[in-house]
Amino acid sequence: MSKIKSIGVLCSGGDSPGMNCAIRAVVRSAINAGLDVYGIQRGFSGLLEGNIKKLDVSSVGNIIQHGGTILQTSRCLEFHEADIRKEAAHILKRKKIDALVVIGGNGSFNGTYALHSEHGIPVAGIPGTIDNDISGTDYSIGFDTAVQTAIDAVDKIRDTASSHERTFIVEVMGRKSAAIALHVGVCTGAENVVLPSDTLNIEEIAKDVKRGISRGKNSSIIIVAEGEKEGLSHRIREELKNDHGIDSHVCILGHIQRGGNPSGIDRFIASGMGYIAVKDLIKGEKAIVTAYRHGEVVTVPFSECLEKKTDYLPQYINLVKTLSI
User: Fold this and answer.
1) Please, what are the domains in the chain?
2) Which helix (H) or strand (E) holds 206?
3) pLDDT averaged over consecutive 10-residue blocks of the chain (325 residues)?
4) 51 is in an annotated binding site
5) pTM (predicted TM-score)
6) Which residues make beta-bridge pairs with 193?
7) Which of 22, 96, 138, 197 is most exposed, with minimal Cβ within 10 Å?
8) If we measure between CA atoms, which residue out of 38, 17, 37, 20 comes closest to residue 29?
9) Of 98, 131, 133, 144, which one is the catalytic site residue?
10) Is 108 flagged in the annotation as binding?
């Protein structure tokens, strides 16, 4: 058993629905075990500023149903520098914080693991990103809620598309990850899904739209993952119009996918991850990530979760193509 007496918790990178559930679980699990818990505001930036406060059970009351994060979050590019990480380690030691729980994505995990490797601070990562693109885990907090938010929006757009006999290009989040686009495409019956790794094939998109028209469909939905460069959806609209005579409208869902009340799935998994992160740190683990594998929450070595998961199972892509005919 370890001798840690206190734990710090922070969120880093983009927010995702369910982060509050994980914070709540970390705080209450630690207090239940007799530990002090400190909330660090605004991620690693807040840590460097000393923006740290002690939390109690009431601090996390009535937050499980809310999106975002009560601790707020930020992206701290300075944390790439070894001297900055050294200062962060000194701050944790001065504040008598023995271990750190970080809720975030792959970039945050790399900074956290470097902090542990260089200064020996016990750390636990909880995967929180709507892109579901962290290696080593089947699931990251916020993905289910983001997908359902996008599905609800596309269902409403489909009503308008049908009423006006229009084609809509709906852009969802996913600069490098295909996860949201694939799931939304299948669940909304989209005629075509454009993924970040795809070479844009306007001919195929136009063929899919015209195939639907030929069998009596009066509307079409094209789901587009945003990709790393802005403007992809507008480019598709222009080429469909100029090269194939197909009028379409662009709807960019944007950051509404990050917000909203977390789904039951996100609340449950996030709560389990917060609990097991604290439990294993108390057991003496030094560098772990809570992972969702084969339907259960486990902990795995930090080193397994430092890469982005960019490949998606081919059968998902084939599923979209098969069902969209």
Assistant:
1) 6-142+262-305 (3.40.50.450), 145-259 (3.40.50.460)
2) helix 202-214
3) 88 96 98 98 97 97 97 93 97 97 95 97 97 95 97 94 89 92 94 85 91 84 92 94 94 94 98 98 97 97 90 77 83
4) no
5) 0.94
6) 223
7) 96
8) 37
9) 131
10) yes
Report whether 237 belongs to an annotated binding site. no
For residues 19 and 23, give the distance between their C-alpha atoms in angstroms, rounded to a whole number. Answer: 6
Query: Would you state the pLDDT for residue 297?
Result: 98
Q: How many CA atoms lie within 13 A of 193 on its CB side?
A: 31
Residue 89 structure tokens: 């380690």
**Exposed, middle or buried, 239 (CB in 10 Å: 0-12/13-18/19+)?**
middle
In sequence order, the β-bridge partners of residue 195 are none
Closest by alpha carbon to 105, among 13, 20, 39?
A: 13
Is 235 annotated in some ligand binding site? no
Is 131 noted as a catalytic residue in this protein? yes
Q: How many CB atoms sit inside 10 A of residue 108's CB? A: 28
Q: In what order do the strands lie in the sheet with 36-40?
A: 52-55, 36-40, 6-11, 99-104, 123-127, 287-293, 296-301
Give the DSSP H or E segment for 299.
strand 296-301
What's the start-to-end Cα distance of the chain, in Å? 58
> 105 among the known binding-site residues?
yes
The confidence score (pLDDT) of residue 45 equals 97
To the question of whether residue 267 is assigned a binding role by annotation, the answer is no
Write out the two tokens for 238: 């222009």
pLDDT at residue 2 in the model? 61
User: What pLDDT score was predicted for residue 301?
Assistant: 97
The answer to the question of whether 258 is labelled as a binding residue is yes
In this predicted structure, what is the pLDDT of residue 216? 79
State the CB neighbour count (10 A cutoff) for residue 222: 24
| Contact status, residue 22 vs residue 128, Cβ threshold 8 Å | yes
